[in-house]
């Protein structure tokens, strides 16, 4: 570069670049800048060796430390699982009815159960467990199949009328559209509406039809039968509805409410946790009534 000329004012060699008479001086880079620059290059090389860096066709180089954000998440999950292992084992071993005696275990079960409920149950039973048409309210003390802890856990574990679990709770109301005449069904609709308001289940022509066709499952007094999940027809609580149109539809075509078997998808600790959670929502029974 000795052929480059020197700047008259500073005496520094120029690079030879010139714009409108302004020339670029060829000053050396500041030393601190240069060393920082080399350090970043060295850092870059070391980083790409240690950590995931170079993109390949379907993935990227893994780096010798084998670090990944996914691995980090997995590690944290494993740590949480380990911290929970003790109490989850206790939850699985303890008799369900005895869980409330152990305050720590009960509060763990209720909290874990609430999380399970939000994830797996709320889409059918509602986020507050208030239920919807065809999906029972789990806050009240009206139970189709049973409200003691063991019974709730059984319902959750095996489900209802599903085809996946041979131990699922099962029953089937006949479609009376094939059995009775339309006028008889209309009479029964009136009769059932009367029963819900305290009417005598055996009175009149409706009572006769009721006792002959319905009492086997809904009971002579109409209070339902848990062995077959038949609802109580004498309260004002309806699973499907108490208006004339809905009752006509229910009695003509029957219903077939299906709930999945959660024992096939959740582990036993989660089943017990969510059963404990549901039980303490308000309607839980200590033992099944006689
Ligand atoms: C796909 C919808 C669906 C989901 C999800 C679901 N259920 Fe249900 N569940 C039902 C239906 C439908 C019934 C009523 C079946 C019947 O008519 O007997 C029911 C009934 C119940 C009962 C019986 C209530 C009684 O009166 O005896 C309990 C307890 C229950 N569910 C708890 C749960 C829990 C806990 C979960 C979450 C782990 C859950 N359900 C998830 C649909 C569902
Ligand atoms: C074999 C047993 C069985 C017989 C017989 C039977 N039911 Fe049912 N009934 C059930 C079951 C089980 C349910 C709940 C169905 C479900 O949730 O899928 C039900 C549901 C109902 C409901 C819905 C209640 C609600 O809360 O919405 C009405 C109403 C009803 N039955 C009326 C009758 C009448 C009237 C008769 C006689 C003509 C009758 N049932 C005969 C088993 C029976």
From TrEMBL:
Q: Name one GO cellular component term.
A: plasma membrane
Q: Signal peptide position in this chain?
A: none
- Annotated heme c 1 binding sites: 121, 124-125, 259
Which pathway is it part of? Energy metabolism; oxidative phosphorylation
Q: Which PROSITE patterns match?
A: CYTC (PS51007)
Top-level taxon of the source organism: Bacteria
Query: Is Heme one of the keywords?
Result: yes
How the protein assembles, per its UniProt entry? Answer: Component of the cbb3-type cytochrome c oxidase.
**What's the protein called, per UniProt?**
Cbb3-type cytochrome c oxidase subunit
